[in-house]
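Researcher: Structure prediction, please.
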Amino acid sequence: MSVDSDGTEEHSWSVDPEDEQGADIVAAFGRQMRARREALGVRVAELASRIRYGEDLIYKVEGGKRIAKPEYLDRVDEALEAGGLIKAMKEDLGRASYPRKVRELTKMEERATEIGAYSIHNIHGLLQTEGYARTLFELRKPAYSRGEVERFLAARLARRSVFDRDPGPTISLVQEEATLRRRIGGTMVWRAQIERLLVVAQLRNVDLQVMPTDCETHAGLDGGIEFLKFGDGTALGRSEGAFNGRPVSNPKHLQTLELRYGMIRAQALSPRESRAFIEHMLGET
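Model: Predicted structure follows.
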């Protein structure tokens, strides 16, 4: 029986030393895992043999130095007869692996009552399929490491949970036509992505619109726009072409972004027209 190597890059994520909250979660899990192993009288070498991962990785996970991936947790849960207690940590550990800024964005989207965005370069992150998102990360220059690609991909896909909320937030998304036609990842990946758009467009709380390339009047030439509104009346917005691209919460600045976004929505195809447009694109292949 061959045992996998350390697997530090492939089977775990790094801990951000500046992220105290995430580091605390990882350290607490490591202590719980070690306590469970020791309570059963299982040595590290024995556990490594059972789960087919290197001893060094086990020491790093138990010491709070590495963040275990889901498949690692599955094997440890079974090997230590934890009855699902270790598996139950997947979501918390997964969140701890995200870059801090991404995790903060995910939390804000989770509590937002309204989400709006105009995307000019790529399909918006909330709409991306795994294949499409992975391709974007793998195409990045300078290149991300394999571990970074997996971390960023997990964070990107986790944001899609916003569509599972009940009641869900009001979501309006405007996509530049070029983002739909660019076949990121090849035809198969592209088709899956376009089909995903049609599925999301059917949700009652979602308005998906397309800004056609031949539109002669266009309020979005300064770049993409994003904003989040919350239940307490506060909001946060950002635009590539306004306020130096920084997030803003000042009511006057937000009013400027909302005015521009409202004009973009008025100039784009309606949600019904947009669905027909996307369906026609699929029919062309």
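Model: The radius of gyration is 22 Å.
Researcher: Thanks, that helps.
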